[in-house]
Write a structure and sequence with these properties.
The protein is an alpha+beta fold. About 25% of the residues lie in helices and about 25% in strands. The chain has seven helices and twelve strands. The protein has a five-stranded antiparallel beta sheet with strand order 3-6-5-4-12, with no helix packed on it. The longest helix is centred in the C-terminal third of the chain and has 18 residues.
Length: about 280
């Protein structure tokens, strides 16, 4: 009785969120299928639904103006990441949609449609293709989910970090070798998204896994920019790491003013954080 009531409530919630969607969804496909495809008629990507989990495992139903997600970054390169959006895992124990580097999903905030799921291997390839995709394929107002798997910092360029900063990240400049990071934001956001976390690596080991279940509003309000002092993770990192990080460790960790975005790290600091981890990778891949 309780299970049936829960499913009924969730299905009503799910259909409410998809009333405007171009993707037809039925109770049969929702509850009896383990694999579904989102198919588009206008040449857009086909998105595979690998697994169905009501409410993405959240204990409470999200409000009418929000939707549930589950982000799991993986403990190491053999523990594959997972991403659930509105009860549907679109990344889960396969490598067709997700993989090493930065994984991204885009949700249209007006039609409640998952528009695309992509992977950018920023360990192996320069991240300029991520820049181009965000500039040309993601619309203002789209909700965008970013999260890392395995190693994502080696070829994540200064330009990409600044672009992600402009999209609401307050932590992307701190992403180094084998850190874990996720951000849920909205293109065009003012300020810093409240839906962002980073877990820091230590002595070339993978950082602690990020495993988060959230209700995300379709209209994300940014938080004001604030200044921060040198943090405990920076002090711990600098006390135990290699000499190559002296450029970062000697820098103040305070944000400085930026004409465009309100604050940013100094160029020297960002450059040292971008390039230093890559010099370690050849030894520790």
């Amino acid at each position: 009785m309780v299970v049936l009531l829960y499913k009924s409530v969730y299905v009503d919630y799910f259909h409410l969120k998809n009333e405007k969607s171009s993707i037809p969804t039925t109770k049969t496909s929702l509850w009896n299928s383990t694999k579904t495809l989102y198919e588009y008629d206008d040449g857009k990507p086909t998105i595979e639904v690998i697994e169905i989990l009501p409410n993405c495992g959240l204990q409470t139903i999200c409000s009418d103006n929000a939707f549930p997600i589950h982000i799991y970054t993986g403990k190491n390169k053999t523990d594959f990441p997972r991403l659930c959006i509105m009860g549907k895992y679109v990344i889960s124990f396969n490598r067709t949609a997700g993989g090493r580097g930065i994984n991204v999903a885009v949700i249209d905030s007006t039609t409640y449609t998952i528009m695309d799921v992509k992977n950018f291997d920023t360990y192996e390839y320069n991240s300029s293709n991520l820049d181009d995709w965000l500039d040309h394929m993601v619309k203002v107002g789209d909700v965008v989910i970013f999260f890392t798997f395995d190693e994502a910092s080696k070829k994540l360029t200064k330009n990409t970090r600044n672009l992600l900063y402009s999209m609401g990240s307050g932590k992307i400049q701190d992403l180094w070798y084998r850190c874990q990071w996720f951000m849920v934001t909205q293109k065009g956001i003012q300020g810093i998204t409240p839906y962002e976390k980073i877990s820091y690596s230590h002595k070339n080991n993978w950082a602690n896994v990020l495993d988060e279940k959230l209700c995300v509003p379709f209209q994300i309000k940014g938080n004001p920019i604030v200044f921060d002092d040198s943090s405990n993770h920076q002090l711990s990192f600098c006390n135990t790491t290699f000499d190559e990080y002296t450029g970062y460790c000697n820098e103040s960790n305070e944000h400085t003013g930026s004409d465009k975005y309100g604050f940013t790290r100094s160029d020297e600091f960002r450059e040292s954080r971008r390039t230093t981890p890559s010099r370690l990778l050849d030894r520790t891949e």
